[in-house]
Write a structure and sequence with these properties.
- With about 120 residues, this protein is mainly alpha-helical.
- Helix content is about 50%, strand content about 10%.
- The protein has a three-stranded antiparallel sheet.
- Helix 3 crosses helix 4.
Length: about 120
């Protein structure tokens, strides 16, 4: 479903990505968290500006695509552009937090089974 008044035609998507169909990087999966590193500058593409404003706090790629009402593949290309110029940083949520030790998880599981 697209927003009223939005033109999601193939011509528009082609223009947004400069004709590219791949980002050239696999750095952006659906749950990758994106954070703005710099403010928008005059003359930037409006979608780039929207991404920079949206990502002042960590935001997942899938959330960005939903908010912009654009296919994830297109958003990944736009994110790669911003990442290449240093305007955003990206990290996978797993790298942000360590998982608990497997021994602790095993003890919790045993405790739950004993309930």
């Amino acid at each position: 479903m697209s927003r009223p008044g939005r033109d999601d035609s193939p011509d528009r998507l082609y223009t947004l990505t400069g004709g590219r169909s791949r980002s050239g990087s696999d750095a952006f999966d659906l749950v990758t968290l994106v954070v703005t590193e710099s403010e928008p500058t005059p003359g930037m593409q409006s979608e780039h500006v929207a991404i920079l404003r949206m990502c002042r706090f960590p935001t997942a790629v899938v959330e960005i695509a939903a908010e912009l009402a654009l296919p994830v593949t297109v958003v990944r290309i736009l994110l790669a552009d911003l990442h290449d110029t240093g305007r955003i940083s990206a990290r996978h949520p797993r790298s942000a937090h360590r998982l608990p030790d497997s021994d602790i998880l095993e003890q919790v599981l045993v405790g739950l089974r004993n309930l």
